[in-house]
Task: structure prediction
Amino acid sequence: MMTNLLLSFSALSFLFFGLGCLTSPRLKLEFLRYGLPQYRKLTGYLQLLGAAGIGLGFLWLPLQLLSTGGLALLMLLGVGVRIKIRDSLLQTLPALVYCSLNAFLFYSLLELI
Result:
């Protein structure tokens, strides 16, 4: 039950993050600040795919496993970027939390397969 709630939270979060990556002028400026403007759209699409995979994964578990693992990796890369550009811990914390959440979900789902 709790895992399903966390999966739903992650899926909804990445749905909004992905849409924001593709449409938000503020996020366009953030990717410039990261020095990675060429990866903004790819990141947005990967976030949307991850969200969709978690949702569809309620019907086919391996897709959910792949999606949570992929989102954990994507957020780990986000943490790395934040460290590289010397962001504060407070600025890095959201990526770290979402990385940890999806890694937890990935390992929780591994037990079910």
The chain has five helices and no strands. Residues 61-84 form the longest helix (24 residues). The chain has one domain: 2-110.
